[in-house]
Write a structure and sequence with these properties.
Layout (H helix, E strand, L loop, with lengths): L10 E4 L7 H7 L2 E2 L3 E3 L15 E3 L3 E5 L12 E5 L8 E5 L2 E2 L7 E9 L4 E10 L2 E11 L6 E10 L5 E10 L14 E9 L2 E8 L10 E10 L2 E8 L2 E10 L4 E12 L8 H13 L3 H19 L1 E4 L2 H17 L26 H13 L2 H13 L1 H10 L21 H4 L5 H16 L3 H21 L1 E3 L4 E3 L17 H18 L4 H7 L3 H13 L4 E2 L4 E2 L29 H6 L8 H7 L6 H11 L10 H11 L3 H12 L20 H11 L3 E2 L5 E3 L9 E8 L2 E8 L3 E7 L3 E5 L2 E5 L1
Parallel strand pairs: 26-30
Antiparallel strand pairs: 1-9, 2-3, 3-4, 5-6, 7-8, 7-13, 9-10, 10-11, 11-12, 12-19, 13-18, 14-15, 15-16, 16-19, 17-18, 20-27, 21-22, 23-24, 25-26, 27-28, 28-29, 30-31
Helix pairs in contact: 5-6, 5-9, 5-19, 6-9, 6-10, 9-10, 9-11, 10-11, 11-13, 11-15, 17-18, 17-19, 18-19
Length: 750
């Protein structure tokens, strides 16, 4: 655990140039706009340790799988979003000497990420040639004009003599990924220009052997400054402009760099240059102040709908805002072809690909905090990839559709067998998200049109993947890995079987409502439907009568069951200390598994069932997936285990800010950032939505807090919920009257 930033409600701020924690600093000062994003790397060359990372959503490259490719059905490649062409690179020289914070001593250092406006600022005073100069660099990626990244330099001469300031503003295609099987160059430069008023570079991802489309990316830079353009700079892989100015004592200069980034995802390769020139012209109509004002205004709108205010605990306040800020910087639903990588634009791990995290953990948050079209775009993403999911099922010799664990285009991209072949529970969550969206919004349009196509194919997969045990006279699912990845190749994972059964019955229920034409399109026979019905009725869901719990899998109770508290502290986390074999044999649970299923269907289990399962499984859970804590916080709150709920909340809220798992240096845990919001809203405030769309709350106030307040967007209304020790206020800010329940009492919001 490490806290390197100061506690502040709206900023991530430090006054230390902390070279030891440079990567950690970079992760936490990441910014993005859904289309692109970057770690908080410095603009100028930095000779110390750093993890440069600028990423463009959906611009990826297939990497050869390392193991297993000789086995039938194995994915051919492992996809990764690659490091983009570096367009923020801007080197600074003072009296001919390069500024390099890897070596230079600086004073008055400040690094601040303003979460209210989405602006990253760095300031320092550096001495070169015995002259002191103050440098301030501001940058933002625009959430108004997605192709724009704007940088503003203010350089002030604090010395009593003139200094020469030189700025080289570059576009550099010579970049690498740390986490890749190849050490090759990703980008082939196909065109570049160093003309002063038309500086650009177009690169194309290198060819691959897998038939995956190559991406072309164009970057144009434009400068607004009083500095004199000195010369164009051109080398292999990079292009730019150099500016110089003699700066009189006690004066300052401003330098602005605007990078416009377009990709072949939006324009054909031949149209990249004209389009980036066009966007450059559009942006050139506005001053930096205007661009920034538009950015601030747009962020203000997001916050108005989404902010959570916590009184009495500034660190909790900073935690939740940081999580919301980073989530919205990763995805705000503008583009249905994009999704939410577990590390977003903040690191290389998980390759920027889409996981079940989106539907399982991010969808409930976006449903409440953004316009429904944001969540709808997440659903459309999967609908558009149905043929890829069908391909995955075929690869395994099965019918229907198997949504991938890791993907960009619907095709499974993961290179571990237990995940590719076995973690099929993800298919259930894709179906669950359709149900969740429909229940939340009350809008059945997607369900009855695209949704039913997805559900039918997922149902077909389950119906083919189960087998009938003659001995038990039950349908079973063998050879799986549940959400708890600390068990592989198990039989009858309760959660997986439950989701398979539920998907079949939800699909049958939905089919009753779809049009005859649609039904005909789905080519369902009576025999197929009655087979589904038989599976629903005879699905085996392992449980132990004596303990009154659902069994995570067959044989779980035969393990040497010892609580996590029995593991010596110096052996935690077990995934960094134990062999994989020892972990698999142990009873320890990585993340919610049975409890994940209970969370999905909260209302369908009695309080006693929830309690027995929580009391049994939570003490065996090591929470070594960042997705774990939120589910436990919500269930603990539901069971009135308030201290446990708060403990679990703390784990999710500042996971990255306090580097809880000692791994934030390689990026933020974006998809689990939803956890703190879920813990507050579904946990502390007890928000639920019934199948009939009844919204209800059962709030409590954590002891350390004096109040909390949040907004939710529900069926066209905007509500503000404020909780203090002795009262709960719910205000209808926008929309029609609404009947809700608070602590089981019905009331009408006018
Ligand atoms: C978790 C998975 C998750 C993945 C990406 C893993 O550690 O066990 O459930 O999908 O991380 O966040």
């Amino acid at each position: 655990m490490e806290r390197i930033f100061e506690v502040d409600p709206w900023q991530i701020v430090t006054h230390q140039l902390d070279r030891k924690h440079k990567r950690l600093q970079e992760s936490m000062t990441s910014i993005g706009n859904g289309y692109m994003g970057m770690r908080g790397v410095f603009e100028e060359d930095y000779s110390g340790d750093s993890l440069p990372g600028i990423y463009l959503g959906g611009v990826w490259y297939p990497d050869k799988t390392v193991v297993g490719w000789w086995k039938n059905g194995y994915p051919d490649y492992f996809g990764k979003v690659i490091n983009a062409i570096n367009f923020i690179k801007t080197n600074l020289k003072i009296d001919g000497q390069a500024v390099d914070l890897g070596k230079d001593e600086v004073t008055a250092f400040k690094l601040a990420l303003d979460m209210h406006n989405g602006v990253l600022t760095r300031q320092f005073i550096v001495t070169k040639n015995n002259k002191q100069v103050q440098v301030t660099i501001e940058r933002f990626v625009s959430i108004v004009q997605k192709e724009l990244c704007a940088l503003r330099y203010t350089v002030e001469n604090l010395a009593s003599e003139a200094v020469e300031i030189e700025i080289s503003s570059m576009i550099d295609a010579d970049v690498q990924n740390e986490d890749a099987n190849y050490g090759e160059q990703f980008w082939q430069v196909i065109e570049q220009s160093d003309a002063a008023d038309d500086t650009y570079l177009v690169g194309k991802t290198m060819p691959n052997d897998f038939g995956v489309p190559r991406f072309s990316v164009g970057v144009q830079i434009d400068h607004q400054t009083t500095m004199m353009a000195d010369t164009g700079l051109q080398e292999a892989h990079q292009v730019g402009q150099r500016f110089k100015q003699q700066l009189a004592p006690k004066t300052q200069l401003n330098f602005e760099k605007r990078a416009v980034v377009v990709t072949s995802r939006d324009y054909s390769e031949l149209d990249l240059v004209p389009n980036m020139q066009r966007i450059k012209q559009v942006v050139a109509q506005q001053s930096y102040q205007q661009l920034l004002a538009a950015q601030t205004n747009q962020w203000a709108k997001r916050w108005q709908m989404a902010d959570v205010v916590i009184a009495g605990d500034d660190s909790a306040q900073q935690g939740i805002r940081f999580n919301l800020f980073q989530l919205f910087s990763t995805f705000y639903g503008e583009d249905e072809r994009l999704n939410i990588g577990p590390k977003g634009f903040t690191g290389e791990k998980y390759g920027g690909a889409t996981y079940w995290d989106t539907e399982g953990f991010a969808m409930p948050l976006y449903l409440s905090l953004a316009d429904p079209k944001v969540s709808l775009n997440l659903l459309k993403y999967r609908h558009n990839q149905l043929s890829g999911a069908e391909h995955n099922a075929r690869q395994q010799g099965l019918k229907g559709a198997l949504y991938p664990m890791v993907t960009f285009d619907g095709i499974e991209n993961h290179n571990e067998w237990e995940i590719t072949f076995e973690e099929i529970h993800r298919n259930g969550t894709i179906a669950y998200a359709i149900y969740n969206y429909t229940r939340y919004t009350g809008d059945e349009t997607y369900l009855l049109n695209e949704g039913i196509e997805v559900l039918t194919e997922i149902a077909r997969f389950w119906a083919d993947r189960v087998h009938f045990s003659q001995r038990a006279q039950r349908y079973m699912i063998h050879g799986v890995t549940g959400p708890n990845e600390y068990e592989n190749n198990i039989n009858n994972n309760w959660y997986t079987n439950l989701l398979a059964q539920w998907t079949l019955s939800y699909t049958i229920e939905t089919l009753k409502k779809v049009s005859d034409n649609k039904k005909a399109d789905l080519r369902l026979s009576d025999a197929e439907l009655s087979q589904w019905q038989a599976i629903i009725e005879k699905m085996y869901l392992p449980q132990d009568e004596q303990l009154g719990i659902f069994l995570q899998q067959d044989g779980f109770l035969d393990k040497d069951i010892q609580p996590v508290s029995a593991i010596p502290a110096d052996q935690r986390p077990i995934n960094q200390h134990w062999s994989w074999d020892k972990i698999l044999r142990s009873p320890y649970i990585k993340q919610a598994d049975v409890l994940q299923g209970i969370w999905y269907f909260m209302d369908r289990f009695s309080a006693a069932e929830k309690k027995r399962n929580f009391d049994f499984y939570e003490p065996l859970t090591v929470h070594e997936s960042s997705l774990s804590a939120a589910v436990h916080a919500i269930l603990a709150a539901d069971l009135h285990y308030e201290d446990k709920a708060v403990e679990m909340y703390a784990r999710t809220a500042r996971l990255d800010l306090d580097n809880y798992n000692n791994d934030t240096d390689d990026g933020l845990h974006i998809t689990s950032m939803t956890g703190s919001w879920l813990a507050i809203v579904q946990g502390f405030a007890g928000m639920r939505i019934s199948d009939e769309g009844q919204l209800s709350f059962k709030p409590f106030l954590p002891k350390k807090w004096t109040a909390y307040e949040f907004h939710i967007n529900f069926r066209g209304r905007l509500l503000k919920i404020s909780v203090t020790a002795d009262r709960t206020d719910i205000k209808l800010l926008k929309g029609d009257r609404l009947a809700i329940q608070v602590n089981d009492a019905s009331m009408m919001l006018e």
